[in-house]
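Revision sheet: structure tokens.
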Amino acid sequence: MYILVPWKPVVFVWGLLSATIFFGFVASSVLQGKDPFAPGATITQPSAMKATAAQAGQQPKNSHKAAKSPSQ
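Predicted:
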């Protein structure tokens, strides 16, 4: 005697789970700055964006020093 299995819900849930894992992997790779489809490759940023990020990192240091000097 055979047990009948409704295959449509099983395939649907399996596909949904697979899609969730795949999109989670792609999103995680992109957030880490890596190309999800090229092993070992990283996404490079344009030099203008790097310069902006470097300036943004230096601004709090300068403004912090400027804020200390009038109080002294």
